Model the fold of this input.
Amino acid sequence: MSAGWSITVGELAQLIGGRVVPAAGEDQATASARALRGLAGLHEAGPADLSFLTNPRYESQLASTRAGCVLIASERAPLPHAAQLVVPHPDATLAQLVARFAPPPAQPPLGIHPTAVIGERVRLGRGCRIGPYVVIGDDCELGDGCVLHAQVVLGEGVRLGPGCVLYPHASVRERCVLGARVIVHNGAVIGSDGFGYATVDGVHHKIPQIGTVVIEDDVEIGANTAIDRARFGRTRIGAGTKIDNLVQIAHNVEIGPHSIIVAQAGIAGSSKLGHHVTLAGQAGIAGHLRIGDRVTVTGQCGVTKDLPEGAVVRGSPAQDFKAQIAQEVAVRKLPGVLARLARLEQQIAGLLADKEPRS
Amino acid sequence: MSAGWSITVGELAQLIGGRVVPAAGEDQATASARALRGLAGLHEAGPADLSFLTNPRYESQLASTRAGCVLIASERAPLPHAAQLVVPHPDATLAQLVARFAPPPAQPPLGIHPTAVIGERVRLGRGCRIGPYVVIGDDCELGDGCVLHAQVVLGEGVRLGPGCVLYPHASVRERCVLGARVIVHNGAVIGSDGFGYATVDGVHHKIPQIGTVVIEDDVEIGANTAIDRARFGRTRIGAGTKIDNLVQIAHNVEIGPHSIIVAQAGIAGSSKLGHHVTLAGQAGIAGHLRIGDRVTVTGQCGVTKDLPEGAVVRGSPAQDFKAQIAQEVAVRKLPGVLARLARLEQQIAGLLADKEPRS
Amino acid sequence: MSAGWSITVGELAQLIGGRVVPAAGEDQATASARALRGLAGLHEAGPADLSFLTNPRYESQLASTRAGCVLIASERAPLPHAAQLVVPHPDATLAQLVARFAPPPAQPPLGIHPTAVIGERVRLGRGCRIGPYVVIGDDCELGDGCVLHAQVVLGEGVRLGPGCVLYPHASVRERCVLGARVIVHNGAVIGSDGFGYATVDGVHHKIPQIGTVVIEDDVEIGANTAIDRARFGRTRIGAGTKIDNLVQIAHNVEIGPHSIIVAQAGIAGSSKLGHHVTLAGQAGIAGHLRIGDRVTVTGQCGVTKDLPEGAVVRGSPAQDFKAQIAQEVAVRKLPGVLARLARLEQQIAGLLADKEPRS
Done:
């Protein structure tokens, strides 16, 4: 993090409501007086950095970290070097701190860059920032404080809620609708045609895709992700859902609120996902499925059937996580099983041969 | 679909050559007089909407749909609410109707936007529409009626047949050739360098990729798809082939006519696919393979060997569909197999122990 | 390859230090006098083309090729039609020849296109080529001879070393750093926000991503690939590493030098890869892993655990290549195993039944 701020551990504890645990052999006053001027991971941090334990995988780095202070969810025995700052949600606290101390994001200046091409009957809210070579189609409507970086393209009749941020080369096709505070990263495409054809005598005839896409509030969409418009009706992304890079969302898909779609996952046409669903990286959902609330789909998993609420699935094709793990463990033993089976067959053949002369 | 048109079921039947089947308790005249003003899926449709059954998965919605009329391939017993309009290919009929009644697509006005940068010796056909900030390199040639949306970039010497439509941020690199009526969605890249290196002593030296890409007539290319130029010669996409979003097509690949490549599928270098091949989502084809005509590759399948005409494959690595399914079924029983095997071993050990004292 | 050059086999042998092997029935002088005017694959080449055998898969085409001359690593018996030119590294020699004889790459003219928007305090090296509608943010620094094709966007404070080439619609976000001779293909995104949220009570709060991306010298990045900026610190791509199209590289990933990342592969957050690692197409690496030097990950493989130096892995989840192959072979026998097991159970039941009356 760039320089320009400095805060003591004690001031930070007051600011965020945490409790200070001194390092080994240190008293409370010394710990509280440590000055912090940066943020870094446990491994990289130095004595003037605030660090954090938000992933248990890095537990073992607590003993060796040189950080001045570590944000942590539960108190440990005093660490060799770092003071601890105990807070209930280190991740969330970290996000707040970063938002407070980070350098302001790079964005175009207030107003409309002279090179932007703005269509007819476009309504812009107050405080918008429209960058160079942005193209806004006729009849678009932008809420207050929207930021369109260089070369964003909005088709005709697109509507953006307040506070949306679209990065360079993002595009939103005609008539699609984004809610408030939607973030769209570079190169993401919202509203491209769904993949629909009527095949007659081996020739594929395009079915025009005349629906739209609706993105609800607080959604984030990653770089080069594609979300297709509906054949009719709407492709819909629920409020608070976060979508990573290079994700494919086909026509007429619906994703409930607060879901997490990790990079390179894909959802085929017309599937409906509940809220708080998690698709890990490179996972795939076949078309026309119903995926319940709070379902978790692991990485590279391929879902081909409906899934009830809370299901956790793994494998391609997807199965219940525990059943799949049991099978994977069993498959690892399979070469040995073949040997055991051959031995049994030999033994039984012997027993049967013994028996025959006797009968 | 937006308002502005209205047609009765009877008029529609005349227009498209279908047969009207009244709803339960309704007479022919009443059914034919129903007015339709929109198009919608079975679940969403209301009494003024035309709907359709094109996927057997939605058969069960026929009983509950509130649509005014349903396009259908074979007559059912009268439905509770909807009239039926029986046609041989509902999908194709639907496509024709949509093309007829849909709102005209959003496109730049006729002519060349004043901000477009047009190179030297560029030849434009009649009726082209060139949007804002389009860049066309020297020596390009565009057929009649081409539409280049905002910020499309054509490299030097690119040729487009008549009626091509390129959406915002699509780009075609130098010397690539597109046939007639090719559609390229937002952010798709045609003609990026193939991935080829000569590795000497652990250092990868780039092999210049000096071939091109040839896209034949009536191909559609999805958003953010990448099609690499050949090392020498041509990467080729056959006429009528449809390619979805985020697909990777490597250098020197050839795809025959009328194939379907679903989202996030990838084809490695120099593989040749026949006609009417289907790659489902996230499928992968290794390099230097021959894939026969009418092959079907299921979702997430990984093809590592040549495939004969008509093959249907599944799994990673790919195998014959039925063999793969049989193995998947068997694997699901494998944890039980291990238990059964252990029991057999115990029983045989007992039998052998019994035998030994006797001998 | 376009016309305009012509060289005899003998001149070529002198130029590159190879040895000429005449075709069957031909003398040395005749072979050396053959004139070459193009480059082509074995199957496509004609008598005036230089061809090459760089992949043993095409060995069988040596007998039928009509090429004038074939670059080859070890001498064969005289071929029916083609002369041989024996060199130690045909791939590398080919790359040199292509670089020497290929048509010059299409690029914008020297200088800054009048439509480019250049920020304040931007420093451009000598001999740069800045194309139409390029946008360069404040405080950027470009080394000598950089080429920015149409509509490239650089955020604030981006630094490019000498000789970088960025193709249309490539974008580099604020403060990211590219070394010398980095090539970025169309639509690739460097420095988009990492995918990081703090989830409190089911709501995902964005963790600002305030780190950067560092791309070292001689890296090539494919079309529509996405490389996210670090949460803090740096996402880093080592010198000489080559990345194909549509690859996902998450925040805080580090890739060592001279690695190969094939199309549609993905690497989740904070994983560290060594040097000379190969990820084949559609492979995935889970987050927070350590992947040793010279590791090979096969196509569609899913790595979920750390891998030691030199490991070769296959399958999803990944396992040692040989163990995985043994299991795949065993699984193919599994349906038969079930039948054999049922037969054994029947036989043993018979033996046990026989035994009981006797005891």
